[in-house]
Amino acid sequence: MLLCVTASHKTASFELLERLSRTPETVAPALIGAGAQGAVVLATCNRFEAYVETDDAGIGAEEVRDAVAQALGIPEAELDGSSRTLTGRRVPEHLFSVASGLESVVSGEGEIAGQVRRALTDARKDGTTSPELERLFQRASQAQRRVKNDTALSRAGRSLVRLALELADSRIADWSAERVLLVGTGAYAAVTLATLRERGAVDITVHSPSGRAAAFAKKHGIRAAEDYPAAARSATLLITCTSATEPVLGPVHLHRPVAATASGCPMGAAAPGQLVIDLGMPRNVDPAVAQLDGVALLDLETIRLHAPLEELQATDAARSIVRAAAESFNEVGDRQGVTPAVVALRSHIFALLEAEIDRARRRGDDDGRVEQAMRHLAGVLLHTPTTRAHELAADGRADEFVAALATLYGLSPEPPSASSASA
User: Are 161 and 191 spatial neighbours (Cβ–Cβ below 8 Å)?
Assistant: First the structure.
């Protein structure tokens, strides 16, 4: 059975999402240790989700939530109040919807598709994935590509970077005159740099808390900051997008060195007219920055509040594709689930058949007509229960067929092996 514990911008505060995203790599091993057959964790700036495969003897929904909370050091009551738990047939539609950008802050944003793929890659590296989770995440990527190719959602939706810069347009008259400081050198920073250049920004400096600024600057033809606080004070636009777990930009970086006042006023003031855009999760910018005179802070929570309305037509078309893909996924899974029962029935009938054919041969069935008739009869008798098994599986009632076999024939089919499930 598939389970998903999900906390997102729709159910949880950004403060909690920050805490959930600090050490996501600890969650999947903890779930495996608690009895899950497989676990894949998806942690982004707007959501935290743990996808789990379990069997009847494994952990249930409550145990999954408990394991997630303990691994992350989050009180169980706090996680329960800010998350949802999905089970069974609801899980594929949810992941397919997430991968397609339908559950993002900005509907249709493209970054999430790569994050879903990387979540599976990380689980493979850590050895926590399973055949059913492999199938789930691979089908999610297929559904996402179809949504992208067959609907206008990806064109209507905008990335967080693009939306943030569009919100900045109201403050910036001439992008070519802006002094930009980019803090971060990862994939998100590269996307941000390209988007800045599209808008006409040319005076761009980069700083890396991890010391990779020089290599990033050389690769992209920009400057590396030699003095981070000085570069921060002189910039008119600062954009942070690092994976640091603590703030990398605070009031101390933006203060100009002036004397303290007797009344206890701040020791300094930021350069006038500065706009700070924080795209980090956890937060890259100390919220106290917003209290500085002349500084405006635009963070992910603010971006969410300004996200445009969904393009209804494109969204409806995308959701139809997602629902169809999820239904197909579930049907295939149901058929795989009933396959061992069908195999057990056929094996039982054919074993009886071979015994009777052997008896007929000993009695003189030299021309094989009795054998031929018996094989034909066995095929006819098996056709209806086999067809009915697949019909029940498609309706999510495969357990009824399994129960009937146990009642009528005393058969207990073995569950599918890992190799057969992945196939």
Answer: yes
pLDDT at residue 121 tops 90: yes
Q: Give the residue numbers marked as catalytic.
A: 45
Which is more confidently placed, 58 or 340?
340
Note the CATH number of domain 160-305: 3.40.50.720
Q: In this predicted model, what pLDDT tens digit does every residue of 373-391 receive, in sequence order?
A: 988 998 888 889 888 887 8
SS3 of the chain: CEEEEEEECCCCCHHHHHHHCCCHHHHHHHHHHCCCCEEEEEECCCEEEEEEECCCCCCCHHHHHHHHHHHHCCCHHHHHHHCEEEECCHHHHHHHHHHCCCCCCCCCCCHHHHHHHHHHHHHHHHCCCCHHHHHHHHHHHHHHHHHHHHCCHHHHCCCHHHHHHHHHCCCCCCHHHCEEEEECCCHHHHHHHHHHHHHCCCEEEEECCCCCHHHHHHHHCCEECCCHHHHHHHCCEEEECCCCCCCCECHHHHCCCCCCCCCCCCCCCCCCCEEEEECCCCCCECHHHHHCCCEEEECHHHHHHCCCCCCHHHHHHHHHHHHHHHHHHHHHHHHHHHHHHHHHHHHHHHHHHHHHHHHHHHCCCCCCHHHHHHHHHHHHHHHHHHHHHHHHHHCCCHHHHHHHHHHHHCCCCCCCCHHHHHC
Average pLDDT estimate for 312-335:
85
Enumerate the CATH 3.40.50.720 domain ranges in the chain, comma separated.
160-305
The predicted-structure confidence for 125-169, as pLDDT tens digits, reads as follows 999 999 999 999 999 999 999 999 998 787 655 667 888 898 999
The encoded tokens of residue 314 equal 């494109």
**Contact of 42 with 88, CB cutoff 8 Å:** no
In whole angstroms, give the CA distance from residue 423 to residue 417. Answer: 10
Instruction: Delimit the CATH 3.30.460.30 region(s) of the chain.
Output: 2-156
- Peptide linkage before 251 cis (omega within 30 of 0): no
State the average pLDDT over residues 75-103: 93
Centre a 10 Å sphere on the Cβ of residue 309 and count the other Cβ atoms it contains. Answer: 7
Per-residue tokens: 359: 């008896």
Region of residue 240 (left: phi > 0; alpha: psi -120 to 50; beta: else): beta
Which tokens go with 282?
A: 């956890």
The CATH number that domain 2-156 falls under is 3.30.460.30
